[in-house]
Amino acid sequence: MEYGFPLVTAHEIGKIFQDINLTKAPGPDGLCANIIYEFFKVNKEKFTNMMNECINYAIFPVSWKQASVALIPKVGKDLSSPSAYRPICLLSTWGKVLDKILSRRLTFEPEKTGKLHPNQFGFRNGRSTLDALQFFKDFVHSSKLNKHVTIAISLDMSNAFNSVEWRDVISALHEDGVSDYLIFSISDFLNNRKIVDPNLQVNYNYGKGVPQGSCLGPILWLLIADRLLRAMDQIKNCVVTMFADDILLLASDTASYKFSNSLVNPLREIELWAHKFNLKINPIKSKFIIFPFAKRVTHIPRLKICGKNIRNCSEFKYLGLSFDERLNWFSHFNSVKGRVSGIQYKIKRLSRATWGACPEVLKEIYLRAVEKFILYGAPIWFSENVKLRNKILQIQRIPLLGISKTYRTVSTDALHILCGCPPLDLVAKNDFILFKLFGRHCPIQVGDQTISFDDVTHLHSDPDPPWNVISFPWAIGDPDNQIGLKIFTDGSKLNNKVGFGIACFDERDEHLWSVSERLNDEASVFIAEAMAIFYAIDKCKDYSCQINIYTDSRSVLMAINSLKDDHPIIFQIKNLLRKSDHVKLFWVKAHVGTYGNEFADSLAKRATERDDIDHVVPMPKSSIKYKMRESLIKDWQDRWKFSRNARFLFGIFPEVSFRHCFGDFYINQILTTHGSFPIHQSRFFGKSSLCICGLDEGTVSHFIYGCPRFSSIREKFFPVNFSVLGFLDLILNKRACQGLREIVSLLLCASLA
């Protein structure tokens, strides 16, 4: 049967199931995604035909459109008000699959033709909140350089996604020249939708709003939002950016009083757009901030939206970052500090000084959650400002004190070493540099090396249409049982030099030809293995006989078999395989005596011994991150080496390490010398620094090695030669460590008596 659209393929559906969370809550039919996935695996042809028939006849089955609605309460709202809840539609998985097929095809068309406005940053591949925030920051800085005052107006939309009229969506699809088959299918997708709740006996038809919880919903909203962005292009001296339904109006002028007149037309245009599409702007939540280029602004313009004044504020929260008039970010970090303190207060319920969760668990919570929260927006707010650095380290101290269980008097430098967590300002600097390279495509300096965006492997950003997705299988093969040419490939990295080798044999195992090529040192073994396969396929693409390619790289074969082809070299291999039906891929185990594999391995190693580079490939992202990590370690080591703090701890741990995780309340008193020792009590509280025994000052060394009061503990727990052992040797000795805890515990009891 002939279809008037590109057919849905099993590979296309397979990729959709790869991206669906199989454990998500089901829709009204109660069938989870993993159950539907099993249906697909059992009969892919029937499943694919069903989806093709649905699109062909522009039918989105009614039962697939029914939604169970979960109401999520908004924080800080009056729960007696309907607007205090965010509705989330729980949809049928059958419908989700068809929904994703349509949404990916709909996304492909305007993105490919460039019809979507560049100032829309939400729900778009390769764009994030960081891009929107960077656009905002660049606009302010550019205006300041021109000695202009900048104004930023944030306009809040009330239930934007739930208010869009379906007829406007269909009209926008026609205007943008979307394919007819998509328009017809989306029309039926929107038509005759129901909300059901059997418990409350609710069965309600609704006729507007993009379904929240569907994949098409955000894409359809972008079409409506795009109308505003296009209209604002016609108005000079101002710019509108959007992230989903968050509208930000930016303008600059020589004086702030001029905004009262110059922004009347832009704000009216936004009102007209909202009225045209039956959307509501909430003036109460809308606000604006003015960024002066020199002295403080004295004239605050009067701005109105929907007949009501827009509120002026000195702090402005946009996409999770708090902007202040001077862009010094202190208001943002004050907010972050309060949130982190709240998180740490809750963690304290699980772990205190002498009981609770182990330090490794607390460190994992910090690295996976707290640190990510603190570092959000680092590419935007980071600078080498000393005050900013100190503020970041102040915030980092809060969770690190919880991990290490040390006294508050311990220096931040010592906390970094005990917890194995680098100074957060250095981590933020790394994030800033990486975003500069990958987000802004600007060259960066890593050590002595300058790296530009073109030097780096970037993910394949211009994919084929969704229906062209494909994978190529491989098998575990025995070279002796195959007909046709046998080609063995391998990649190698020795002494930081990379190369690949290829060896070709006929059916009688006679050597026909071989290749030994060196790559640039930044290449990874994965790239070398993939390059060998690519080179072999390309060399044999015009052969008419069967070609059997053998490799010991399972990772490359799995990438070729994957439905994702983000890596450029994998994408190129797949394009060659599309035209090479006579090529088969096999995996062989490495270093088990397979002659061809060993020969290819020797060719790859021989290539690494040469001085000349045959192929220069882009540097993998992992290599950049490794170099950045090495740079971070160097900076951290220099800071630790030249710090004036915690020199006793420096004598024990002169080298920084990510592996450290010392969270013992008693042992860390020894490592930091901050605890129940008289010498410490003397420094902070003016007490006597002498030990009660009267023989010496009450230092850590005295109590562990010399004080006669603890001789019985030393005899019981310490090894015979303890006097020649260092502090770290005793701490790492399980029995001696128990004795150290006993000594510190007794000192603590004595100091509290």
* Approximate strand percentage: 15-25%
In total, how many beta strands?
21
User: Percentage of helical residues?
Assistant: 40-55%
Oligomer: single chain
| Biggest pleated sheet | 6 strands, mixed
Our count of domains comes out at: 4
Radius of gyration over C-alpha positions, nearest whole angstrom: 32 Å
Query: Ranges with pLDDT <50 over ≥5 residues?
Result: none
Output the structural class: alpha/beta
Distance N terminus to C terminus? 92 Å
Give the overall shape, derived from the CA principal axes: globular
Major sheet strand order: 16-21-20-17-18-19
Helix count, DSSP H or I runs of 4 or more residues: 30
Mean pLDDT rating? 90
GO biological process, one term: DNA biosynthetic process
Pfam families: RNase_H (PF00075), RVT_1 (PF00078)
Protein name: Retrovirus-related Pol polyprotein from type-1 retrotransposable element R1
GO cellular component, one term: DNA polymerase complex
Short descriptors:
alpha/beta; 753 residues; globular; Nucleotidyltransferase, domain 5; 30 helices; single chain
